[in-house]
Amino acid sequence: MTAATQKLFTDALVWDAHAGVFPSPQVDLNLLDHWQQQGASYLSINVGFDVMDWQDTLATLAAYRNWILARPERFVLVGDTTDIDHARAEGKFALSFDIEGMNALDGNLDMVGVYHALGVRQMLFAYNLNNAAAGGCHDDDRGLSEFGRAVVHEMNRVGMIVDCSHAGHRTTLDIMQESDMPVVFSHSNPTAVWDHQRNIHDDQIRACADTDGVIGLNGMGIFLGDNDISIDTMLRHLHHVSDLVGARHIGFGFDYSPALDIDIGAILATRPDFWPAGQQYETRGIKHAGPELLPPLIDAMAASGFGDDDIRGFLGENFRRVAAQAWHA
C-alpha cells in the first residue's frame, strides 16, 4: 500500500457485513482474531441458516453470545452504532449476529424480538430455497408471503437490518417495496459481471439504492467469476455497481471463514437441494477472498479514480449509515 492509502485504511471504519463461518456451537470463535488482525472493526457473524432446525440456531446463538460476553477485554457485542464507536476507541472488535432465512422463526413473529434481544441485528429472508416467509434464489420464488410482509415491518420496528441476499428476484423486490428502512444485500455480486443464480440483477441493485441501501460485495470465487478472486475481478464488480447507482451504495460482506475443523463438503452433500448442481458448488478448491484482500484492493480503487470519501464509504461508512437508521441509533 502507499503511505496515503495505508493511513486511510488504518483510520477507517472497516465493516464486514457477513462472515461465512459455519454456524455451530462447536466452532472455536478464536478465529475472530483473523478479522481483527486484518484491520476489521466490525463483523456480523451468522448463527443460523435455513438448513438448520430453529432449535439449533438458538443453541448456536446461545453459545456464541456467551463466549463473546465472557471476553469483554477483546470483544463488544453491539446493540447500536455507538457501541461500534466505543469498541474502536478501546481497541476492541465489535460484533453482532445475523441469521440466514426465516425458518429460525418457526412461524412465530414474536421470535423477531427475541432474536433482537439476544444480539441479532440482521436477518435474511431465505437461504436459497423457499420458506414460509419468502422465496429463494435457487427455487421457483413465489415472492414474499403475508407472514413475510409482517416480518419486514417487525424487523423495522425492533431495529434489525433487512437483508435480501440469498432470496429470489421477485421476493427481493417485494421486500424492498415493503420496508420502511434502507435494505441491504449483505453479500451479493452483480449478475451483469458474473451470471450466477446467487448474484443479483441490475433492477435489484437499483431498487436497493432507491431505499438508500447497500450492496455488500461477496469474496467467494464462484460468485465473482470462474473461481476467480483477483483484484481486477473484484474491481469489475465494484465498478459495475458504482456506475449503476453510485459509490454511496457499496460495501463488503466477504462471506469468508478461516479454515475450520468441519467438513463443509460433507455438509453440502447432505442437502444438494440447497446447493444445486450446475451452480459451481461442486467446484473443487473453491477460492475465497476475505478481509486480507482489502489493502491491495484499496490501492486499486484509488488508482482507478475513487476518492478517499468513496473508499471510506466502501470500507464501512455506507453500511454504518444503514445500520444507524435500521438500529434506531
Sequence-ordered SSE layout with sheet pairings:
Elements: H1 3-11, E1 15-19, H2 33-37, E2 42-49, H3 54-69, E3 75-77, H4 81-89, E4 93-100, H5 111-117, E5 120-124, H6 146-158, E6 161-163, H7 169-178, E7 183-185, H8 202-210, E8 214-217, H9 221-224, H10 231-245, E9 250-252, H11 264-270, H12 294-303, H13 308-326
Parallel strand pairs: 1-2, 2-4, 3-4, 4-5, 5-6, 6-7, 7-8, 8-9
Helix pairs in contact: 10-12
What does this structure look like?
- The chain has 329 residues and is of the alpha/beta class.
- Helices cover 40% and strands 13% of the residues.
- Strands 1, 2, 3, 4, 5, 6, 7, 8 and 9 form a nine-stranded parallel β-sheet that branches.
- Helix 4 (81-89) links the parallel strand 3 and strand 4 (93-100).
- The longest helix is centred in the last third of the chain and has 19 residues, at 308-326.
- The mean pLDDT is 95.
How many E strands?
Answer: 9
- The gyration radius over C-alpha positions equals 18 Å
Strand content: 5-15%
What is the top-level CATH class? Alpha Beta
Total number of distinct structural domains: 1
Structural class: alpha/beta
What CATH architecture do you see? Answer: Alpha-Beta Barrel
Instruction: Name the CATH homologous superfamily.
Output: Metal-dependent hydrolases
- Residue share in helices? 40-55%
Helix and strand element order: HEHEHEHEHEHEHEHEHHEHHH
